[in-house]
Structures are given as C-alpha cells and as structure tokens.
C-alpha cells in the first residue's frame, strides 16, 4: 500500500524524503546495515587467526545480501518506505545483490573450506524467505529476524576465517552468536512499535493518569523518543564494539 502523498513523516528515524538520493539512503537503512555488518566483523575478530582480506570479502558479501538485496525485497513487499524507486530497479538490485553475495562466497571456498557451502545456501534462503515472507511467513518473525540478521552473520564471519572447530574460541563464538541473537531480538522488539507509530499514524494522542488523579496528555513524538533513542544508541554501540575488537587484533 502506497502512503498518502500528504503524509510526509519519514518511515524511520534515519529516513529521508525528497529525491533519488533520499530514497536510496532510506532504502539502505545505514544505521541498521552497519549494525548487522558489525556482527560479521565481531565473528571474524573472535577467530584465532584473522585474515583481513577474508574479513573484507565477508563484509562486502553481507552488505550486498542484507544491506542491498534484503532491503530492496522488503520495499517490494508493500512499499513500507514509500520510495519512488521503480519496481524493476528494486528487482534488479535485489537479484544482483544476492548473486554478488553468493559469488563472493563461492570464490572464498578455497580459503574457507566446505563449511561455507551450507552457509551460502542458508543465506540465500534467509534473504528470500524472510523478506518475501515465503513459507507462510514462518521465517518472518521476531526470532527469525534475530537469527537471520544477528546470529547468522556472526557465525559466518567466524567460520569464514577457517578456525579450528575444536578450539576454545569456538565456545566464545557460540556465546557471541547467542548475544547477537539477543541484541537483534531487542532491536526487533523496539523497531516494531517505532515503525507502527511512524508509518501507520499521522499522530497519536495518549493520556496518562497519575496516582493523584491528574492527567497528562502527550503525542506520538513522546512515544517515539525513548524507543528510537535506544535504537540510535544500539546502532552506534555494536559497530563501536566491532571496531574495538578490530583495533585489538591489529596491535
């Protein structure tokens, strides 16, 4: 459903209106994309030996798959961002992004070994299944989001470094995957009401009653401020954590 043209509120706290550049900025979800790419970085940084070129390839693959393809498919499914990007362009971007990510994965196989083969297949399945709501939407849930965009990138980032699986770092990677799933679940629980207030309602009026019987009225911005404040903080904290780990490994 296309939004009312007179409804000018941006679809997210980082969203923009007004032209092609604004549409692409909004489509790529920069804070969230950086957040999810950071999980792949964290996974690589946990590995006993860090291959920087493999890390770069992993981040590029996830940018194409998640930052580009998944977000383009999501916009095709009901136009939730209200961009003016054509349907043809969105399809082409989503297909080429997913193919590009898969090609990078295949080219990396001589270094990563066969463990990456099922990861490539699972990645394609997650992008298509989640964003197109295939399988009756069974992947399009809070936990599906948390696993697909949190735990999975971290696990692949770790495995792409070809670590010895019988190593203490593997236990750390498992714990980090659980942490990434938990953080992404928190993101989903916060972003769902934020999207609802921004995209479905022009304004909201709520009345709170104090114990002494007095009332206070507030609107949508008051509801959004703490939710989006937490999302802003988390979208900065996770990339900073990834950067910290990389700086430690670069010593």
Description:
This protein is mainly α. The longest helix is centred in the C-terminal third of the chain and has 33 residues, at 168-200. It has one domain. It has a two-stranded antiparallel sheet. A hairpin with a 5-residue loop joins strand 1 (205-209) and strand 2 (215-219). It contains 8 helices and 2 strands, in the order H-H-H-H-H-H-H-E-E-H. The radius of gyration is 20 Å and the shape is globular.
Oligomer: single chain
Q: How many domains is the backbone divided into?
A: 1
The tally of beta strands, per DSSP, is: 2
User: What structural class should be given to the helix and strand makeup?
Assistant: mainly alpha
Mean of residue pLDDT? 92
Distance, first to last CA = 51 Å
Helix content: 55-70%
What ranges have pLDDT less than 50 throughout 5 or more consecutive residues? 1-7
Helix count, DSSP H or I runs of 4 or more residues: 8
What sequence of helices (H) and strands (E) makes up the elements? HHHHHHHEEH
Q: Largest sheet, described in full?
A: 2 strands, antiparallel
Give the percentage of residues in beta strands: under 5%
Task: Strand order, main sheet: write it out.
Answer: 1-2
Shape: globular
Rg, Å, rounded: 20 Å
